[in-house]
Amino acid sequence: MKYFSELLFDGEKWLNDVYFEVDEKGLISKFQENSKNKVNNLGVVIPGFINCHSHSFQRAMSALAEKVHDFNSSDSFWTWREAMYDLVEKLDQKSFSIIADFVYMDMLEAGFTTVGEFHYLHKDIIESDLTLMGETIINSAFSVGIRLSLFPVLYQQGGINQELEDKQLRFNLSTDQMIKYFDEISLKVKDGNNLGLSIHSLRAVDQENMHRLVKFQKEKDCMLHIHISEQPKEVEEIKEAYKKRPVEYLFDQFEVGKKWCLIHATHVNENEVKLMAKSGCVVGICPITEANLGDGIFPLVDYLNLGGTFAIGSDSHVRVDALEELRLLEYSQRYRDLKRNRIALKEFDGSVGKTLISKTYKGGAKAVDLPVGTLKVGNYADFLVLNEKSPSVRLKRVDSLMDEIIFNSSSNIINDVYVCGIKKVSNSKHINKQKIEDQYVSILKSIS
Questions:
Q1: Which of 61, 92, 179, 214 has its CA at 20 to 30 Å from residue 306's CA atom?
Q2: From the candidates 119, 200, 264, 317, which is the catalytic residue?
Q3: CATH number of 2-47+373-433
Q4: Active site (annotated) includes residue 264
Q5: What is the number of helices (H) and of strands (E) in the chain?
Q6: pLDDT per residue as tens digits for the range 249-267
Q7: Can 315 be counted among the known catalytic residues?
Q8: Where are the domains of the chain?
C-alpha cells in the first residue's frame, strides 16, 4: 500500500509532502519527505491515539449512574462500584462480546487506534474455559479492527485481608491460574497485538501473590499495569495495613520501572510524584472517568517538570473521545492551579496542544509496549486523516494546529482512521457501524 500526505505529524514534528509505503504486516516500510509522488493523497495526517486503560464492559452503564437515589447520603466512587457489580451479574459471554465490539468501534471513531484492555471479568455466567472471556476481547478487537494490548488482571480479595464479595467472584483467579492463563492466551493473541499482566490494586492482592506475579512478569518481560491511589479511602486503607502510602509502598516492595504503568495515581504526595517520575514508569490518566467518578486531579504539571511519562485512557467509557480526554487533562490542571497553559513545555515551543499530543503518543506506546504512536519506518501504519472541511485543517497553521485540534474542535475533525494501513473509519463512521450499533442496542434492551 502506498500513500501520500501533504502535511503529516509523525508524532514529534510536522512534515511536508510525505510519501510512505506499508508492508503486508501493516508496518511502514518506506518513508520519504518532500516527495513528488502524490499517490493516494490523504491530506493532513497524524498518528492514531493510544488508549492505555479500558474496562470495555463498563460502556454498557454509561450515563446510567447519574441519578441520586438516596438524598440522605452522597454518591461516590464506592456507590458507583455497586452499580457496576450489578451490571456484571447480567453479562454473559455473548453480551460481553457485543459491548466490546461497540466500545472498540467508538474508540476508532474517536481516534484511538490501540487499546490497553484491563481485563478482570474472567468468568462467564456458566462454567467455561479459563480464557474464554479473554479470547472474546481478542476476537472483538480483531473483528472491529483496533489494535489490542490485553492485560489480564489478578483480583483476589475485596480489600486488605477481606474475602471477595459474591458479586466479585467472577473476577477471581488464583496466581497459579493466572500464570496458566497467561501462557494459554498468549497463543491466541493476534499478530501486531500484545499481552501483559495486571494487578487490580494493592487492596485486591496480598503481598505474597503480588510478589509471585511480579516475579512472573519479570520472567516474561512484559508490561504490568496496576490501579493505585485512585481514592482517599484506598490511601488510608494501605497506610493502615502497610504503614506507607500506596505509591511509596509499591516502590518499597518492587523495582518499579519502565515496564510498569500506574493507573490514576490521583492522591499522591510530593515524594511519590518524584518516585514515579524518576522511575521511568508510565502514569495512566483517565480524565473523563476520573471527573465522572469524583476521583480527583493528578498533579501532572509537577510530574512533567520532573520528566515523568504519562498516557491517557477512557477507562469506564462514560464518554469515548481522545481529544476531550486531552482537553480535560489540561483544564483540570487549570482548575487546580487557577492558572492557564499548564501543560506546556519549552521543547514543544510552549504549545499546550503539541506538548499534550506528543507526550501522550510517547507514553501511550510505552504503556501498551507496541511500536505505535509515531509514524516512521518499522512502526505500525495506524493513523488519522483530518477533516479537510474543518477551518483549522484548511488553514494548516502548523504552529497552532495541535492547539486548534484539541481546544477548537470536536471528534468530527477526525475523518478517516487507518489501522495497519487499512481504512476502518470513513467519513467519521466505522465501516460496520450500523450492524455493531444495532446489536449493541438489542443487548442493552435485554439486560436493562
A1: 214
A2: 264
A3: 2.30.40.10
A4: yes
A5: 15, 17
A6: 999 999 999 999 999 999 9
A7: yes
A8: 2-47+373-433, 49-368
